[in-house]
Structures are given as C-alpha cells and as structure tokens.
Specification:
The longest helix is centred in the N-terminal third of the chain and has 31 residues. A hairpin with a 6-residue loop joins strand 1 and strand 2. This protein starts with a helix and ends with a helix. It is globular and about 110 Å long. The protein is 41% helix and 15% strand. Helix 5 packs across helix 6, helix 12 packs parallel to helix 18 and helix 21 runs antiparallel to helix 24. The protein folds into 5 domains: 163 residues, no CATH class; 195 residues, P-loop containing nucleotide triphosphate hydrolases (Rossmann fold); 47 residues, no CATH class; 77 residues, no CATH class; 176 residues, 3-Layer(aba) Sandwich (Rossmann fold), CATH 3.40.50.300. It has 727 residues and is an alpha/beta fold. The strands form 4 sheets. Strands 1, 2, 3, 4, 5 and 6 form a 6-stranded mixed β-sheet that branches. A 6-stranded parallel β-sheet has the order 9-8-10-11-7-12. A 6-stranded parallel β-sheet has the order 15-20-19-16-18-17. The protein contains 25 helices and 20 strands. The structure holds adenosine-5'-triphosphate (ATP). The site of adenosine-5'-triphosphate (ATP) has 25 residues, from helix 4 and helix 6.
Length: 727
Amino acid sequence: MEDNFQSAYQEEEDRLNQALTEIDTLLEKLNQTPVYTGHDYTEQVLEANRDQKRKDLAKLRQEPYFGRLDFQGNDEKQRKALYIGKIGVDREQVSDRPLVIDWRAPVASLFYSFTGGTEPASYEAPEGLIEGLVYLKRNVVIRKQILERVADTYNRESDAPVVSDEFLVYRLGENKDNRLRDIVSTIQEEQDKIIRAAKNTALIIQGVAGSGKTTVALHRLAFLLYQYKDQVSAEKMIIFAPNRMFLDYISDVLPELGVGNIAQSTFPDWAANVLGLELPEQDATETMNRWFETPGGMPVITEETPGRFKGSTVLMGIIESSIKLLESSSVPEGDFIPWEGAVLRRSMILRWHNEEYAPYPPAKRKERVMARIHRWIEMELKKSPSAAAMKDRKKKGAAREKAYSAKWPKYDPLTIYKQIFRAAKVPEDWPVDPPENIPAAVLKETAKDLKKGIIREEDLPPLLYIYYLLNGNEGGTRFDHVVIDEAQDFSPFQIAVLDLYVRGHSFTILGDLSQGIHAYKGVHAWEEMQTLFAPENTAYHALTRSYRSTMEIIDFANGILSSGVESSLLAVPVFRSGDPVRMIAYGEIVGEREAEGNARLSTIQSALKSLSGREYRTVAVLTRSLREATELYAELEQHFEDIHLIDGSMTQYQGGLSVLPVYLSKGLEFDAVILADADQDHYGATAWDAKLMYVGCTRALHELWLLHNGEMPSYVQTAAESDSEGN
Ligand SMILES: Nc1ncnc2c1ncn2[C@@H]1O[C@H](COP(=O)(O)OP(=O)(O)OP(=O)(O)O)[C@@H](O)[C@H]1O
C-alpha cells in the first residue's frame, strides 16, 4: 500500500515537473511576441487573446490541475490519463491530448458524475454519447507548484472499486477564511447535474443548509459561459443575493474560476435603478426589526399578509386590468382644436392611437400620438394667411397642445400604484370602490405607507410591472441568465417580473424552505414559482447532502427541523465527525460561577475565548436580535481584538470574530458558532422560531455551542436527545 502510494506520488511529481516545463515554454513563446499597440482591430483582438493566455498561464503555473481521470473510450486502443484543471491548456501540437483539460469540458464531466463500480461509464460529447471504462480517479493538491497530496478516490484495480469520500472529507475539514471558495476539485454528482443543466430552463433547486447552493450557482455561471460562449456573455448575467455583505462574501469564487464582469445585486438595488427611484436606506432594517425583534412574535401569516399578497400573481392581475382600463380611456374626449377653424377629429386621433401605434406600450403610444399631433399643428400653421396670424396661432396652438397632453392619464408607475391602492385621486372612469380582491387590511396599510412616501421592498415588483406595462423594456435589458440565491425569500411576483427581463426563462433559482424566515413575503412551496413557467421550461432538483457541517451538527439541526418545523427536508451528512454540540447554561462553564447578573456575559466571553484560542479563522456569536448583538458587541469589543459587529448596513464581510443577529447570518458560515440565548425567553415555540434556530445552528462548520438561560425550547431539547442517541 505504502509502495503504491510512493509510486503514485513519484509519478505525479514527474508529471507536474513536465507540465510546469511545458507551461514555461508556452509562456516564453508568448512573451517573445511583441505586444501590439496599433489600431488594427483584428490585431487588437489577437493581442487581447494573447494577453488573456499569458494571464491564464501565469495563474496555471501555480496550480496547473487538481484531478486526474484515466479513461479508455470503447473506440480507443489504450487508456489515457486526463489532467483536469480550472483552465484548459492545449499543447503545441493540436493533435496531442491537451496538457490540462478545462473542468467544464464534456469529458471532464466524468470526473464528477462517475460514481464507481466496474460498469462502463459515459459522457455526452458534441459528437454523441461516448462510452468507455474509468480506471482511475485521482485528486492531487498542488500549491505554489508543490505537490502536496495525492489521493485516489477510485481505482479499478483495487479490491473495492467505489468512489470514496476521503478526499472530500479532508477538504471539508479545512478551516474557512472570510470568503466562499470554489469547489472544482470536489464537485459532487448531484451538484454537477445542476451545474451542467441546459441553459434555457428555469431551474428550481431546493437544497438543505450547506448543500452548496450558492457555490453550485456560481459554478453554473462559469459553465454556461464556457458551454454557450457564442450565445451568452458575462455582462448579461446577474446574481441576486439578499444583501451587499453577502455579495462581498461570495465575490472571490467567480474570479477564481476565471470569470469576471458578472453583475451582482440585491433585488431592491436593481429594481430601484430600473425605476429611477431612490429608496430610503433604512427601509429593510426597519422591516427586519419589525419581524425579528420579538421572540415568538411573528404574527400568523396568511395570503392577506401584505408581503404575501403584494408578492402574489393576484396583484399582477389587478395591475394588468387597471392599466387596460387606463389605456382604453386614455385619448381625451372631444376633437383637438388648436385655434378656431382648425379641427383634428378625435376619430383620427383614435385611429392613430388604436391602430397605427397599437404595437407600442401606452406611454410610448401617447408619446407617438402627441408627436403626430405636433406635426399636424405645424402643417396647419403653414396654411396661415399672414405672418402675424401664424405667430398668434403658434402661441395658441402650443398652449392647447400642452393642455391636451395634460388630459391624458399620468403614465407614472408610482402614481398608478397609488391610484390602485387609493392613495391618490383615481381617474374619472375608474370604479370609485377599490378593487374588491385587494384585502381590506392590505389596502389600508399600503395606502397609509404610500401617503407617507414609504415604499417597501414588497412594493417594488408591482411598481416594476407597472413600469414594464407602460414602457415595455425601455432600456433593452435582457439577461442571458439570472441566478437567484435565497430564493425562498422571493415572491412569485418578483420572479414573474424578472422573467420579463430574461431571455429563454434562463434562471437558476436556489433556496431552502426550511430557512424561510422571511415567510411573510417569500414562498411557502416551490410550486408557487414552478407554476409561473410552462412545464417544458422548468425543472426541479433537490440537494439533500450537506457539506458544511460535521455529522453531529447536522444531526442536531435535523432534530430541530423535524420536531420544531415538522419538516421532512432533512439533510444527509457527509461522514465527517467532530465534537458533540455543546449546550451550556449561563454560569455553568467550570471556573466561571459568577454573580447572577454577569453570568450571561461571562459565559459568552469564556466560550468565545475558548473557541477563538483554537485554530479557527472565523467564529461567530449569534444573538436573537440586532439590539442584543449591538449591546453584546459593545461589551466584547473591550476584551477581544479583531471582533466585528454585523448589522444590515454592512457591505463587507471581514471574517475573524463576528457578532450578529441570527437572521443576518443566513448564507454565511463560520468555523465555530456560539448561539447565545438559545432559551425560551428568546425563541418561542413556533415553527418560525425553530427555523431561525435552524439557520443559526447550520452556520457552523466544526463546532456549535448553544448558551442558554434556563429552559430551552422543546425542539432543541428533542434535538439534543436524538443527537445524543445518535452518538
Ligand atoms: N462539493 C463540495 N466540495 C467541497 N466543499 C463543498 C462542496 N459543496 C459545498 N461545499 C462547501 O459547503 C459549504 C456550504 O456551501 P454553500 O454556502 O454554497 O451552501 P448553501 O446550500 O448555499 O448553504 P446555506 O443555504 O446554508 O447558506 C461551503 O463551505 C462550500 O465550500
């Protein structure tokens, strides 16, 4: 065994040296070509390509590849060793096997999809299905040109030819810094299917916490750019994520995969930009506080909860019919008479409006009709008997043209939205009563907000829809692909509006219903989104394996889900064992029996001291509310260096020690997590409280400590019991 390992290591070291020499030769050759600085376009393109190649090769010199797959196609005479890396490199002779195969290439898919056994394996190539035998799957870790590790995860010639998780477990055991990383060397089969799924489909992915949703979405973008390079461009792709700090947290993955220029935004930022609105910064934080500050305080959510209703397709229907109503009576009554003796019949104006300009959306149609009227006035002016009469008519005509234009409906999204909710005077021929299918409470609350000038996040999809119906896709924005992370917090209306801006329903929509802590606005079942698309345009995938946390943490979090949320969306752990989840009452840490009043603080401090003294790079203290996080941070800051408070306004994630409310931790991960106040005083008995707790617990990679004052919610107790039984 040891000998085999030695020879494998030697073999890979030789191959690495050879690869490095070849890369150096390629680089040298490129560097010898003088840099083109002239004006010839073709030469400029060639120079840009050379420049990219130089950069790729320089990067590749550090870590040329991460995997090897030995494969023999049925039509091939001998097996070949394929080396797979982040960027593909061809050899000097095109006929030769590439020096490095890009991980996104068809043959590389075998490296991920092959699950072991002795049966033939196959992959989809442009020329058709290629079948053959896999002999070896090997992971190699190369850092700064040094071969650090060789691990065979499959060997056909071994006694047990199955793909082992050993290398994956080694990778998962590493500590994390303050950024999400690429996973090209260990993408799992279920993830690979999503990454390589066809472009023109709205993919909806339900994935348990830590199943790699965010990571997979980013790899999928890199794949689409490779696979469909003639059809898509990075500039026309966008990632929507919950907040700016999260965007910062994920911002390294795409550059690591050699992809740049993909827009990343929150939905409110993007929508406000399209609408040309300036949204008050505090709005989201204010909404959060409203929902999250009170333990067990989430009111019952129904279809009439404002966020749910305003995110529904029912409101879409109301908007559509309101705009139709507005449009049908938009041409003002009566003929247009710019001055006595000149008459433009309404029937003519109606013909222009209803026939000639019918393909245009209402606001554009009005613009066209008014421009036509203006041209008609100019023609009529030419018939004036004298220069003085012309001057007089010109003045009158301009004033009447202006007055006529003002009689049209006001095609402004916010005005129409206010009219629909009766927060502004409605047009004369609208029914005086508000639309009967807007629930009274929603109508009242929204009208009150709008009159005060408050626009909430949930108002943005309807506003955008009105804007779109009025103007069409004015800016011409059409995305080639849209990724929506944490999609359980999106509403069907949001997705439907975005679909208007996407070519071919090309979406990757990822989320976890168990983490639906914003259920007052998000979806409660994926069908709500799936039914927006024709069946042939959508596909559903489930990711059930969790890669982030140890088995102990996952079992514990599963306990919370099944007993507190009665959910069946439980995570399957990778076999990575760590310390048991710890539950510590305030004042209980040995040697910390402090006076009652300080017991909480001193216990949190001791826990933090203990965890931050280990090799961990990121440790978080999660509180129930932002107020508690702020107060706790003020205390801890005096005793710990490199400690950060994370509130809703942060734009950067710094790593190290963090204090934050649990609801802001969604999407992030930490080597160790201290969940403060995990007691009944802070977490009620509802499914929603349990979901919050689940989010908190699943942020931890290696260690999870729950600190509490007295009784913990029953779902935590059940989780603790089932976890200890499992151990
Ligand atoms: N195939 C894999 N190989 C190695 N690490 C992986 C793999 N898949 C996921 N991970 C790791 O698991 C962790 C969780 O990934 P990610 O944050 O993308 O999951 P998520 O499903 O979006 O989580 P959540 O919903 O809880 O925020 C990350 O550290 C990621 O690097």
